[in-house]
Design a protein that fits this description.
Layout (H helix, E strand, L loop, with lengths): L21 E3 L2 E3 H10 L5 E2 L2 E3 L2 E10 L4 E3 L26 E4 L2 E3 L2 E8 L2 H13 L1
Parallel strand pairs: 1-4, 2-5, 3-7, 4-8, 5-7, 5-9, 6-8
Length: about 130
């Protein structure tokens, strides 16, 4: 994970094809991306490269293996990155949208919370210490 990027200033560009393996410079709901994959019989979002996109919630992303974030703005956190982190009480994150083996580059998240393994959550928390 790297430092957040500057805000995306391009005009709104609604995504037309969320089924592609590379999604570039469009705006979409995290749930809509999951719904496209679900209709194909996939239980999670996997193998995507997402570049320069605005990604909208409300949603919770369940980060699994192989996710990378480069120059990403994780969203408004009220001055504390920990506000974006959600931790489950049990062994599963029911209702969260699962992601695996995806790269996010120069994206912005709006209204998205994050959960996943402790190593991922620790990296996210560390971003707050860098600002």
């Amino acid at each position: 994970m790297t430092q957040p990027t500057l805000p995306i200033t391009r005009p709104l560009n609604i995504a037309r094809d969320l089924g592609a393996s590379e999604i570039r410079e469009v705006d979409f709901s995290l749930f809509d991306l999951f719904a496209v994959e679900s209709r194909k019989g996939h239980p999670l979002v996997s193998g995507k490269t997402i570049i320069g996109c605005r990604i909208q919630g409300p949603a919770v992303m369940l980060a699994s293996n192989g996710l990378t974030f480069d120059a990403v703005n994780f969203g408004d956190n009220g001055g504390d990155i920990r506000n974006l982190i959600l931790r489950g009480e049990g062994t599963r994150a029911i209702g969260a949208i699962p992601f695996q083996d995806c790269a996010f580059v120069a994206c912005e998240f709006y209204g998205v919370g994050f959960t996943g393994p402790e190593a991922f959550l620790s990296q996210l928390r560390a971003l707050g210490a860098q600002n």
